[in-house]
Design brief:
- With about 375 residues, the chain is α+β, with helices and mostly antiparallel strands.
- It has two domains: about 240 residues, no CATH class; about 55 residues, no CATH class.
- The protein is about 40% helix and about 15% strand.
- The strands form two sheets. Strands 1, 2, 5, 6, 7, 8, 9, 10 and 11 form a nine-stranded mixed beta sheet that branches. A two-stranded antiparallel ribbon has the order 3-4.
Length: about 375
């Protein structure tokens, strides 16, 4: 009797195991089938020459990079030209007391915010401070973060009677907000808007994740044969040939650093049906594919708020198919070549030199392809 009861328990456990395994395996098969279909669509479109809109987006990005005069990063991930930054004025060796507004880094960034939010832009960007930081001389003091909007400071400046001082205070508020508020997504939104893309085709936003998740939603809609006018679809990054006008995106979530690009994409797909506030891929960055050099197997991307500037970077492509290459890494030569004397409290960090030195070595995980 005891043997029969034991056999029954074993059989029930084995049946439960068999029941669980197919569900997990079925989910894996569904994911594989989904991405296989997406890849087929991405490949078919990648074979087509870039359309007029893609060329217009790329042209707009190049023109804005040229106008800003930002940084240039080579294919080894090294910054070889340091340009204008968000907080600076373009240097004038002649000592001129006049400046063209497009030579002011902060003014150019505000242009992106104005395009995104219009007259409400100052309410959307913040200025940060730390309690008592302007008065204390104790360098070890820990201070609480303070936040307010640029609009609050602009309202306070209205009470200043001297018009010159009032204008300087207003510009100081905007320049501080430009430094304290991430603007890379505002730059992308500006480029897309300047390329005459309608509001119902793109999620204009101050956060890249808005249009990244929207591109994944386009994949799901296409699979269901739903009619929709989204501008981009999400394509696997290492197996899809990029075209000008596409967006190359990275994720910067520290907790997800060990996930592969495929695992990150599947996580986003799984979160589409849930509430937006529960989405876990929040820290992201995208850049416009501005030019492709097939013979050299390189492509150029342009992004905003890259080292505090509108910057252009050259990236490696691989093979005859010109797919995105994971080999965007470089080394600085190792800690043994870093001979600058260091104090005792800095010594433990010396081993970090040479570990990761390429500005192109990022967690790139998805290509947003123009549909």
């Amino acid at each position: 009797m005891r043997a029969s009861f034991t056999a029954l328990i074993v059989a029930i456990g084995f049946a439960a195991l068999l029941a669980a395994q197919p569900a997990h395996a079925q989910a894996d098969r569904a994911a594989a089938a989904f991405w296989k279909t997406v890849q087929t669509t991405c490949d078919a479109n990648a074979k087509k020459p870039p359309g007029e809109l893609g060329q217009r987006i790329a042209k707009t990005a190049i023109e804005e990079f040229t106008r800003f005069g930002g940084h240039r990063i080579d294919a080894n991930g090294r910054l070889f030209h340091f340009g204008l930054t968000e907080a600076e004025h373009e240097e004038d060796d002649g000592g001129s007391r006049q400046a063209s507004l497009d030579h002011l880094g902060w003014w150019q960034v505000m242009k992106y915010w104005w395009a995104l939010y219009g007259d409400d832009a100052a309410d959307k960007i913040e200025v940060r401070g730390y309690r008592d930081a302007s008065t204390t001389t104790k360098e070890t003091q820990v201070s609480t973060l303070l936040r307010t909007s640029a609009a609050e400071l602009l309202r306070a400046a209205k009470d200043v009677s001297d018009p010159a001082v009032r204008e300087v205070l207003r510009e100081t508020a905007l320049r501080a907000a430009v430094i304290d508020t991430s603007w890379s997504a505002a730059f992308i939104s500006y480029v897309i808007k300047q390329s005459d893309v309608p509001a119902n085709a793109f999620q204009f936003s101050n956060a890249h994740r808005a249009y990244i998740y929207d591109a994944f939603a386009a994949d799901a809609a296409e699979l269901s044969n739903e009619t929709q006018n989204r501008l981009y679809r999400a394509c696997p990054i290492s197996t899809t040939r990029p075209r000008v006008g596409d967006l190359l995106c990275q994720q910067r979530e520290p907790a997800l650093g060990d996930l592969s690009d495929a695992e990150v994409r599947e996580r986003i797909r799984g979160e589409l049906a849930g509430p937006a506030d529960k989405r876990t891929i929040r820290r992201t960055h995208c850049e416009v594919v501005a030019s492709i050099d097939p013979r050299a197997r390189k492509m150029y991307t342009i992004g905003g708020n890259v080292n505090q500037a509108v910057s252009a970077r050259k990236l490696n492509l691989r093979g005859r198919g010109l797919k995105f290459s994971a080999m965007q890494k470089s080394r600085c030569g190792g800690a043994s070549q870093w001979t600058l004397p260091q104090s005792a409290d800095q010594a433990p960090h010396a081993s970090g030199h040479g570990e990761k030195c390429s500005l192109n070595d990022k967690k790139w995980f998805v290509l947003l392809q123009l549909r």
